[in-house]
Amino acid sequence: MKSEAKTKKKPVAKSVHAEPGKDEVLKSLRAALEGAGGDAELLFISQSLDTTRFAANGIHQNMSERDVTVSARAAVGKKLASVSVNSLAKADLRAALKRARQMAAAAQPAKEWAGFPGPQSYGPAPRVDEATARQSPLERAGALAPLFKEAGHHGTELHGALSARHSRMAVVNSEGLEAWHEGTVADAQLIAMDPGGGGSGYAADADRRFGALDLPTLAETAIRKCVESRNPKDLEPGTYEVILEPAAVAEIFSWLPWIAFTGRSVEDGLSFLKDRFGQRVAADWITIYDDGLDADGIVLPFDFEGRPKQTVHFIDKGVAREVAHDFGSAARARTKPTGHAPPPGAPPTAAPMNIFIAPGMSCVEEMIAQTNRGVLVTRFHYLNGLLNPPIALFTGMTRDGAFWVEDGKVRYPIKNMRFTQSIAKALHAVELVARERVIAPSTWSAFGSACVPALKIREFCFSSRTEF
Fold first, then answer.
1. 20 pLDDT band (50/70/90 cuts)?
2. How far is Cα 218 from Cα 189, in angstroms, rounded to an integer?
3. Taking 60 as the threshold, does the pLDDT of residue 11 lie above it?
4. Strand ranges in 218-302 using DSSP code E only, listed in sequence order
5. Burial of 17 by CB count in 10 Å (0-12 exposed, 13-18 middle, 19+ buried)?
6. Looking at residues 197-226, what average pLDDT do you find?
7. How far apart are CA 202 and CA 378, in angstroms?
C-alpha cells in the first residue's frame, strides 16, 4: 500500500491592501454602538482607487489609494453632531461617539430632526465585479499599449487616466438599522493632442466592469477629433443651434441637480422648478430623474443615513414633477425623505447623485444632418452654474473639439468658445435626444454618476471667443 505524505498547508499571506469584509465591518460597528448609550449612527466608507495616468503616449504614474472613514453621529434630543475617524477599532469608534455626543449637547437644535430611521429593506444591486476590484497596473498598461501605438500612427499623443475603483459603504444605528453596499467602477478618460499644440480630442466612458469599456473605440474617437480639430477658424459670438455630446451634457448635469432639483433649492427660491410643478418646463421628450437602483448607471441602494433611495422624477416628459428631499427639507415641505441624505461634511441639502436623462430616438449623425447653422461641442470645462440660479444661468468653455456645422454637415473646426446660457431655457429648446447614453462618474462623490445622451438644442448662446 502506497503511503501518502501529509504536508502542512502554508498560511496564505494577506495582501498589503487586504480590507475587512462585510461581516467584520458590521460586527465592528455594532460592537462600538453597543453600550455607547443614546441615539447614534456609524457610517463606514471605504475607497480603493487604482489609477494609471499617462501623457505623450507613455505611462508616468501608477497610483494606489486606500481610505477608510467612519463618521460617528450622535443625537441629543434634536441636537446633532458628528466626528470622523480613520479606524474600525472599537476604542476609536467609542471615543468618536463620545465626542460627538459632547458636541451635540452644545449644538443648536435641528428643529426638523425626527430621529434615526429603523430597519429598512433595499432594492437589488449588481454584484461586485471581482476583475475590476482586483485590477493590476500591468492589466491597465497592457490595455493602453496598443492605444499609444495607434495615436503615434496619426502623429498624436494620448493623455489621460484609466482607473478602477472599489467602494464600500455601511450604515448601522441605534434603532437597529443595518445597511451594506459595495460596488466597482472602471473609468477611462482619453485626450488626444498634437505634440506642441494644435488639435485636441476627447473621449470617455465608465462602467462597473473594466472589461465593458471599449478602449480602442474611445481612443479612435479622441484621435479622430484631434486630427479633425487642427487649424481651427474663428466664429463670431452669437446664438446658434448646438449639438452637445454626452461629455458636455454630463458636465452641465454635475451642477444642475444641486441647483434645481432639491427641496432646499426650491425653498430658497433658487430652483427654476419653484412654483412650476405640474407645468411644462422642458421639451416633451425630456425626462430627468434620479434612481439609485438603475444598473445603467452607478448603483447606490441607500443614502448616507441608510434610507432606501427612491426614484425621483424631476422632469417627466417636459413637466416639472418632484424634487429630492433630505430629512430637513422633507419636514419643512411636509413630506417624507426620498433617500437623498448628503454625505458627511456636505452642505445641509438633499444629494441627488444618480442622475439620468431618458434616452431618445436619435444619434449624433442625425443631429448633424438636421442642423442648418450650428456648433458641435465635444465637452465643456471651467463651468460656473451659479450666475443666476433661478434661471440656471451657466457659463463655461468648449474644449477638445468644437466644430462648425452647416447645411447638415461638419464643415471645419472652430476655436474654443465661451457660452453664457440659461439651462432652463435650453431644456425648452431641445429638439433631439440620442438613444445611446454614456456614464460620467460624479466629480463630487465616488458614489455618484450621470448617465446622459447627446442633445440637439435649437438655440444656445456663445458669448465670446478665444484665440485657441
1. confident
2. 9
3. no
4. 238-244, 288-290
5. exposed
6. 96
7. 7
Could you tell me the CA-to-CA distances from 317 to 15, 18, 118, 453 in Å, in that order? 50, 47, 35, 15
Alpha carbon distance 419, 435 (integer Å): 26
Residue 411 near residue 228, CB atoms below 8 Å = no
pTM score, whole prediction: 0.93
CATH 3.30.2290.10 fits 22-228, yes or no: yes
Report whether pLDDT(5) > 50.
Answer: no
Q: What is the pLDDT of residue 9?
A: 40
* Domain positions in the chain: 22-228, 238-465
Long-range contacts of 61-70 (CB under 8 A, 24+ apart): 62/137, 62/140, 64/17, 66/17, 66/19, 68/19, 68/44, 69/44, 69/45, 69/344, 70/29, 70/42, 70/43, 70/44, 70/45, 70/96
How far, in Å, are 129, 216, 383 from residue 422 at the CA level? Answer: 40, 36, 13
- Please name the helix (run of DSSP H) or strand (run of DSSP E) that holds residue 399, with its range, or none: strand 393-406
Mean pLDDT of the chain: 94
Please give the distance of CA 389 from its chain centroid, rounded to a whole number. Answer: 21
If 0-12 CB within 10 Å is exposed, 13-18 middle and 19+ buried, where does residue 99 land?
middle
pLDDT interval class at 18 (50, 70, 90): low
* Closest residue by Cα to residue 207 from 252, 264, 162: 162
Residue indicated by cell numbers 484665440:
467
Rounded to 10 deg, the angle between the 215-228 and 137-153 helix axes is 30
The Cα–Cα gap between 356 and 194 comes to 34
Q: What is the tens place of the pLDDT at every residue in 286-310?
A: 999 999 999 999 999 999 999 999 9
**From the CB of residue 39, how many other CB atoms can be counted at a distance below 10 Å?**
18
Task: Report how far residue 417's alpha carbon sits from residue 393's, in angstroms, rounded to the nearest whole number.
Answer: 16
